[in-house]
Amino acid sequence: MIESGRLPERVQERIDRFLDSRMSILAPLGSDARDFAAISRDFLRGGKRFRALFCWWGWRAFRPDGSTSTSDLEAIVSAAAALEIFHAAALVHDDIIDNSDTRRGAPAAHIRFHSRHEASSWRGDPDAFGRSAAVLLGDLLLGWSDELLDEALMSLDDPRAARAARLEFNRMRSEVTAGQFLDILEEQAWANRTDAEQLEAAWRVIRFKSAGYSIESPLVLGASFAGAGEREVRSMRDFGLPLGIAFQLRDDVLGVFGDTAVTGKPSGDDLREGKRTVLIALTRAALPAPHVRLLDELLGDPELDAASVASLQATIRDCGALDRVEALIGSHTTEALSALEALPIDDDARRSLRTLASAVTVRTS
C-alpha cells in the first residue's frame, strides 16, 4: 500500500512515464511536434493534486484490508494521474477562454506559444498562433487523459467496476465541458436575466463546471475502481458534492480577494474577467440600484487598475456578500462532514478525508 503522503510523487512518476511513451509516438513528426507536446510537462508538474488525492481516498476507503495487488495499485495511481492530465487540459483551455496570462505564477500555455512566435520572427499574428496552438495542446492532453484511464481500466479484473469507473469519467467530462459553456454564457447573457435568475445560473455553474469534477467525481471514480456498490457510491456523492461546492465558493473568493504572491494570478482577476459568480450575484442583490449600475460597468473591464479593484473589493465586503459566501462555505462543509461521518469506512480513511476537506475549503491559493 502506498502512503498517501507519497501519492503526489507516485502520480508524477506515472505521468512522466506516460508522457515518455507518447513522445515516442510523436518522434517521427520531427522536433517541432516534440517541442509542442513537451510544453505539457510543465503543466503537469506541481499543483496541489487534490483530484488525485480524492480519487485515491475514494478507492482506499473501500480497500482497507491491505490485500491490494500490485496491479490494483498501479491501476488506481494511473486513474489519479489521468484526472490530473484532464485537469491540465481544462486549465489550458480555461486560460484561453478567460484571457488569463498566467497560471501558477508562470505564463499560460497560449502566452508561451505567443512568445515563441515573436522570438522566432514568424509571419502572421502571434496572438492567433498562441491561442490556436494552446487549443490543440489542450485537446492533446484531453485525449491523453482518456488513454491513460483506459490503461488503468484494462488492468481491473472486475468488468462491473471498470464500466462504473468509465461511466463516471464520461459523465465528469461532459458536465465540466457544458459547465464551462454555462460559465462563459453568463458573462454575456446576465443582463437579460433577473437577479434571481443570475443567482440560479451561478449556482448551476458551480455544480457542473467545478464541484463535480474537482471532488465528487474523483471520489466516485476511486470508489468505483474499488468495486463500491451503488449505495456506497451514493453515500460518497453525499460527501463529495457539498464539499465540491464549498471548494468552488472558496475559489471564487480567492478570485476576487486572493494574494497574487500566493495564488499566482493577478489580484482581482475574476473582476477583470467579468465572472458572474455567486459572490457577485449576492453583491448585486445587496446593493442599491446606482451602485449596481457602477458594479456592472466595472465588472469585466480587462483594464481595471489596482485602485478600481480595491474599490470593488470594498464594495463586495461592505455590502455583506463576502460574509454570506463565507457562511455558505461553512454550511456546505458542515453538510459534507456530516455525510462523511455516515460513510461505512474505517477511521484512517475518514480522518484523511476530513483533513482533505479542510485543505480544500480553508486555503489561500
Automatic annotation (TrEMBL):
InterPro entries reported in the protein's UniProt record: Isoprenoid_synthase_dom_sf, Polyprenyl_synt, Polyprenyl_synt_CS
Coiled-coil regions listed in the entry: none
Assigned protein family: Belongs to the FPP/GGPP synthase family.
Annotated protein name in UniProt: Polyprenyl synthetase family protein
UniProt keyword Transferase, yes or no: yes
Obligatory cofactor(s): Mg(2+)
Lineage per the UniProt record: Bacteria, Bacillati, Actinomycetota, Actinomycetes, Micrococcales
GO biological process, one term: isoprenoid biosynthetic process
MF terms (GO), sorted A to Z: metal ion binding; prenyltransferase activity
Pfam family, one: polyprenyl_synt
Top-rank taxon: Bacteria
Metal-binding listed as a keyword: yes
Keyword field: Magnesium, Metal-binding, Transferase
